[in-house]
Amino acid sequence: MIKQIIKKEWLQIRRDKVSVILLTAVVLLLILSLFTSWNYFRWYSNLQQEVTANARHHWETQGEKNSHSAAHFGIYLFKPLSPLAIWDNGIDKHYGVSLYIEAHIRNQLQFKAIEDNPLLARWGELTPAAILLVLLPLLLIWLAGNSIVNDKIAGTFKLAVSQGVSAQKYVWGKAAALWCISSAIIFSTWLMGGLLSTLLSNQSFFGVKSLLLLIMYCLYNGIFIHLGLLVSNKAANRRSALVSLLAIWLVAVWLVPKITAHFSEERYPSPLTEVFLKKISDDVAVNGINGHGGKNEKMKKLEKDWATKYGVDSVQQLPINWLGVTLQADEDTNNLIYDKHYDTLYAGYNNQLLVHKTSSLLSPFMPARLFSMSLAGTDLKNSLHFYSATEAYRKKFIGILNNRLRDNSLYGGRDTGRVAFWKSLPAFHYRQSTLPERWKESSTTFLIVLIWLLVISWFLHISAKRTPLDK
Amino acid sequence: MNKTIIQFEYKYWLLHPVTGLLFTVWIAVLFFTVHDVSNFLNERRKHTEELVKEQNERFVKHIPLMDSFATGKRTATVFWDDARNAYDIGYVYGRRYLIKKVLPLAPLSIGQSNLHHGINTINTSPDSWFMALKKAQKLSNPHNSIFGDFDVASAITLLLPLLIIAFNFSILSSEKEDGRLSILLAQGISVKTFLRSKIVFRYLVTTLLSWSTVVVAFFLLGFNFFSDMRGCIAFTSVLFLYSALWHLACMLVNLFRKSSDFNAGILFTAWIAWVLVIPAISTAVVSVVKPIPGKVKLIDEMRETLTDYDKKNSQILDQFYTDHPQFVIKDSSKMMPQFMYKYMIKYMNTLHTLTPLMNDYKGRAVEQSKAATYVSILSPAMLFQDVADEVSGHSQIQFLLFQQYADSVNLQCNNYFNPLSLANRYLTVEEFKKLPTPVYNISINDRKLAGLIMGLLAWLLLLAFLVTRRIKSYKFIQ
Predict the structure, then answer these.
(1) Closest A-chain CA to B43
(2) What residues of chain B lie within 8 A of the CB of A113, using their CB?
(3) ipTM over 0.90
């Protein structure tokens, strides 16, 4: 019986011109989004490989210079794209993808793609994730919203029930038909995106991560199918069904995210860049060490410690270059200050994200979006994962340069590094976060999507059970 | 008859609780957005004022110090210790800020102001050379920025059409569905008169209410809406045009004699197309038609230039010291000044080497920004947004032009101070006092504004033409 209901539903959709137009439009937009995502993925992957190789080349061929001058010359590191970024590029274009590492300073990720494109920041872009999270639900509520109320008006519903089909079976049959359409669209996109991504990347798109994404997108769209049917079953006429559903869609996928973003910023305001940097420099001035000859208690203690260690009267008599020692002490002390301030900044971001997660109670869009970005490796946590790897690398990198200066010359002397030494410094290799790491961060959001689906399904089931036949 | 219809509308539409509720929410949203952007602007203004005050104090305090060296009360053994040395003045004490003024209508739109700086330091520091490379003004959480801004312009662009659709999607179809239309037509009222009266009344109420809310919110929050008459006229025009356009769209859809749910679906689809899909496609098109390599590529090219320069510099110095070993400095106390000279020469050359590269990047960014403006003709929402960005002084191109100007002023500053520093020159107190304070006068592009308004007018005329055609052929019974 369910099979026949599915067939009938599909036939009805095919006969409705508006539904066919909307279905075709969504499919075309998905193809377009896959193409634009693929194009960006290809462009950025090539660029990332090129600039990473160039950055290393620039480092190695910088010529002869003092190792501390080389530390100031520094090196640029670039974030590689996750293969799932073709599906959902998350915050990648809104947060920097490159980092300049140098002596004394912990820099931030910089060069956001949105700074290079005036339209991107304002209007966003078409990505498979955006279409599946925003437009596909709209199509589904259109199809579902018309479904039962139309049958009730036409008398088909009463006819089916009078022939022994239970109202629940009838409703779930319709849901199954819409699930088939929705899943077919999501699966085709997933397959095409996966093939394109695998062709471009040396990592495979297909795996548990992408499978979980596929499941989550199906569940998320299922919520809108059931919601559409629920409203359609309750509505007095088509007009009220559709208007109610459009209002729900607008609130769920558009207003709640915007208001949440805004509220989280109001509640936990992000600092102005210059104010943030000034706080750090003030803190460094008071509690830090100036490796370039600053004089404070910490410096005096350092001098005393090293003189005692080597059994000499002054640092000038040390068998090493004192500048190398102070520069490393500068790093060791000031890094802690930088870490403290950055931890505060990220604690603020985490509080904001907590607001985002809490808003999951208002709309299934929020947990779905957070889960999608997290699994795709394009959310803030993944960016910070890259960032902390670069910071660990910076500390090691600058440490090697300072130690070389310390051990290869005497007080006031000059140490000159050459190509062979620059080449000997370790290259940066980034390991992306693993599935368990990503799952640990995002499992709650997956669970919330599932709860949304179960709750709406339960309401739909109850509503179908209580459907009066006289309407 | 018009009067009767309007009286009816007043009583049964305007005084309806749902209409009242929607208007109340709408007014609250507009107030909230003006309040919010003005908070953002005030925070920025406060920060700018603090910077300028701090610098002015540093400037004033430095004068007596310079005086003490000039009058011989203090003496310095090396150039660097003398408060009058050109290097320190160019770097610290003579530092100035170039500020992009906040326009009176700035609270209308955040535009690109959270991406680009409205203030640039004018000094000899390499960090100030190129504004495009400056860090973003605010350390915003990217999870928030992906959802876009929420300002007056975006509220009107995105929510006003929805409000209009909610009020008017069934303006005629519901009359037909509820059986009132046949009675009205039987009483000699033409569809044209009926629809026109209703839609004009609703249009005037909705638009005037929106406009006056914005004006009142401006006044309450300390901004004078009318102090920039040109911007005020432009914004008012596009608001009235944009609202008219959506009212006409509702009218047109209703004239197709379809059901109310069909009308709602079509109007909502138009909203999605104009507000979400076309702008997103335009973004992709502009990136393809007018590509710019992006800052990642730019920084790569800059590093290439720097590395080449470093290598050449090392080779020349090596050769020089090999040929003239007497110049090799062994006394560590003299190393720092020599390092500073090398540093300055290197950076002067670097600045001049990188300037053409940066100019190319900036030129292409301006070209792309212009292309984005042309593309906005595809969507009335984009046209409206562009006008709001322009009159608020927060459009991409306004920031790019500011960056170009700031870079040119910084180049002048470097060209003035660096040769003086290399020549161990001191500045007199008079010269110090006369150091210019750069001013940037932000301009609103009238041609661009006129073009955008014409674009919106063209959309309106197209819809008006379609409505006129449709209304003539409208038959109640077919």
Answers:
(1) A272
(2) 294
(3) no
